[in-house]
Prior knowledge:
The protein has helices at residues 13-25, 28-35, 41-53, 55-65, 70-81, 100-113, 126-133, 136-160, and strands at residues 84-88, 94-98.
Amino acid sequence: MEKKTTPLQKLTKKQRGFVKDYIKTGNGVQSAMKNYDTDDYSTAGSIAVENLQKPAIQNAIMSIAERISDDDLVRVHNEGLNASRTIKSTDESTIVEPDYAVRHKYLDSAYKIKRLYGEEPKEITKENVYNFFFEPKFQQNIRSYDENLKNLILNKDDTTKD
Length: 162
């Protein structure tokens, strides 16, 4: 009997690591930095954009997401709804307050994974990946970086044709 391969097994070692970390963190840049031996934020951003556009990586992410049970989703929701942070005051006492940023991230990631926003998932394009992964102040810089890189590659290809 032929052994069935999963979408994750069809990826390279670096791609598998990227997918696993992306599922854990929801952050493509951090996942690329960890798995592609780069400390450069721009390079990692480009790798993340490129990876998230690849159908094989999209399929691997979805195959993992589809295995998340509704019970686990409810558990994560509950963790997210109760997330808090501890702050030390100047008099060394501690204050525990709700951590709304963490709560939002837990819920948002869970809804995206389970496609519960009430709309069909959008095709992953460079534009919506830029908007999703990068703060607005970095989005234009990343677009310019990609455009410059593309022009360098195209110009290099033009000079080699002579």
